[in-house]
Amino acid sequence: MAHITKAASVSRRTFYEHFADKEACFLAAYDMVADHIRASMRAAAESFGDWPQQVRAALGTMLSFLAAEPELARLTMIEPVAAGGEIAARHRASMQGFVAILKAGRPEHSGERPLPEATEETLVGGIVSLIVREISAGRTEKLEDLLPDLVELILAPYLGVEEAERLARDGAQPQPG
Q: Are 55 and 154 within 8 A, CB to CB?
């Protein structure tokens, strides 16, 4: 608690006037950052009419923010899982927002077999794992370098490997069906 109050330049009394405990403080900080990231991703995606470019824009926005804010990247991507409890549950719920963005791409799928029900959660889990790996390794500033690979990973089940690779590498507009 001493570290928190010292870093915030507030007394213990002032801290407890605003928060019941450290967990409540962490949740408030997490929610504020997660809400900002979510709103930024939504705004970036809304500037495109087609789903593949919306995904690319949303993901690129998230990676740019995390790369520019290493401490906040750690706060939102690593610490919640380590903290467990309500904090980890809030993080899982936040990640469901990206699952919803990906589920919107199901109509883009033209494969013979339907996508497995867990496709979007699996993709988000993989993305989070790769982002956490880079942050943990001290390479947060390099997160934007993941964009082409992550876009290809996400789009491949929906658009096919060749189209996903093309969109991932050059950011081009999707080819008509």
A: yes
Distance between CA atoms of 66 and 71, rounded to whole angstroms? Answer: 8
CATH for 22-170, options being 3.40.30, 1.10.3470, 1.10.3210, 1.10.357: 1.10.357
pTM for this one? Answer: 0.85
User: What gap in Å lies between CA 104 and CA 140, rounded to an integer?
Assistant: 29
Contact 5, 15 (CB under 8 A): yes
CA-nearest of 86, 101, 109, 102 to 31 is 86
Q: What residue type is assigned to position 39 of the chain?
A: A
The amino acid at 11: S
Res 108 pLDDT > 60: yes
Query: Mean pLDDT throughout 88-113?
Result: 89
Q: Which tokens in the block code for residue 33?
A: 């950052």
d(CA 161, CA 147) in angstroms, rounded, equals: 16
